[in-house]
């Protein structure tokens, strides 16, 4: 049973919308940032995967529930876990809670299925061993 | 049975990511733009709803499937329909196809549940009559 | 003496900041959008320049004055002119006024110097003839 | 003679453009982030200034020179200094160099004049004492 990966984000000045709350589409960017940070231990990190190896992890499916709004300057803690690892795809789960400490109020939940893709051909490819090993490290039982 | 509302977007220079394709979170912004455009006929449009009436339609649930990437300069046609209208929430469905003409290849599908919210209190409120009537105009049978 | 090129933008829901006004860095994006639209008549447009010919027009110098804020839903009219055309660079001038009609109140002024660049080498290159001809069409006397 | 304030940013996956380099308008956002971080020591930080005191620091003038492109994953070090402090405005200067360590190659230079503004009326107001004191701490002789 793997460990969650934790990532903290603070809502920036330009991330709110005309309703005065963090714009909903930003939540997906923060989760993507969390995924990138989680992949940092692989050789060259997510940057090396994309830039040197020309591989990417585009989204194929996303599901999310939004429970509470966030405002400018608030911090959100993202607990990223891996729900399932397939041949070329994997399902990531992100639990967003208020504040940077554990135990904050529930804010949102995102499930993000990505597929390892050759960026030259845009075709799916089997997950490289180092990416797979890293994902397994954060794999947890489905809640 | 209502009619779909059509909205066209062209992928901008700054909407691609380091993988060279339109960044996935932008798709949600385009669907939000489509929703805003669909609501234009209500008094003051979506802008009036937010700015004058201090009401909003924050996302409470989102589901999406991404079938094909989009590149800089490509156009995407968004067919927005209303799947369900509740007391204070409604479910919108967006079908994204390539190009601005009908019949383009499937690109993505987004289901977006929003809740009419008082922006002062952030509490749900019943949908105002004009918003409800507009939504009914685009309500279609669930595919 | 060339003609200005006009471009209209409406401030989007997600373009405001926590101060409730259009975020200042967005103004530069709108001016870039205006430049792209101005270049549409060249073969393949700005998209073709970047994607097929692998040439770009990165900013080398920007100057701007902000006179009045814009809010969600407001429209801004951008009058783009070309102040100077050099061997590989050119100076663009953008005058932003409120509303989509001529004669709106002054909002901001942006001067944007760009250099024609080979995107493979990131070296400056002489402006291609079609780009130069298009720029000359919008060249005006310096105010 | 004050000390520069240092801020480091890493170019994110979604901050590049279709030319494959960090989108120029993002540089202004990073400089704004540096200004926010520099103002953290005032009571409530920049967030408190905007949210509680309803004061802001909108841009009134910007000048910038771009010397070298940045790519996905590269870090940029921003040295922020205060060039001039007036009654209600101040001039900030940002020097961007490659990498997170001192001595990196020059990337860009941004001069950003902001005016302390009452967000309710959008009128200029004298700089509050704590903001002024903080700015003085980073004031340096003009290069």
Describe this structure as you would to a colleague:
The structure is a homotetramer of 143-residue chains. By secondary structure, the first copy, chain A, is α+β, with helices and mostly antiparallel strands. In chain A, 22% of the residues lie in helices and 36% in strands. Chain A is built from 3 helices and 8 strands; from the N terminus they run βααβββββββα. Chain A has helices at residues 24-38, 45-51, 129-137, and strands spanning 5-10, 55-56, 59-66, 75-85, 89-98, 106-115, 117-118, 123-124. In chain A, the strands form 2 sheets. Chain A has a 5-stranded antiparallel β-sheet with strand order 1-4-5-6-3. Chain A has a 3-stranded antiparallel β-sheet with strand order 2-7-8. In chain A, a hairpin with a 4-residue loop joins β7 (117-118) and β8. Chain A is globular. Chain A starts with a strand and ends in a 6-residue tail after the last helix. In chain A, 45% of the residues are buried. The mean pLDDT of chain A is 96. The interface between A and B is medium-sized, with 27 and 27 residues.
């Amino acid at each position: 049973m793997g460990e969650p990966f934790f990532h903290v984000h603070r809502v920036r000045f330009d991330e709110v919308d005309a309703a005065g709350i963090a714009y909903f589409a930003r939540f997906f960017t923060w989760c993507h940032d969390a995924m990138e940070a989680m992949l940092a231990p692989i050789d060259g990190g997510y940057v090396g995967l994309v830039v040197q190896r020309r591989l990417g992890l585009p989204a194929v499916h996303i599901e999310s529930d939004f429970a509470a709004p966030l405002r400018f300057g608030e911090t959100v803690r993202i607990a990223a876990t891996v729900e399932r690892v397939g041949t070329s795809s994997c399902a990531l789960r992100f639990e967003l809670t208020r504040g940077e400490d554990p135990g904050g109020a529930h804010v949102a939940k995102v499930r993000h299925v990505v597929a390892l893709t050759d960026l030259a051909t845009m075709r799916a490819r089997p997950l490289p061993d180092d990416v797979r090993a890293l994902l397994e490290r954060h794999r947890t039982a489905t809640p």
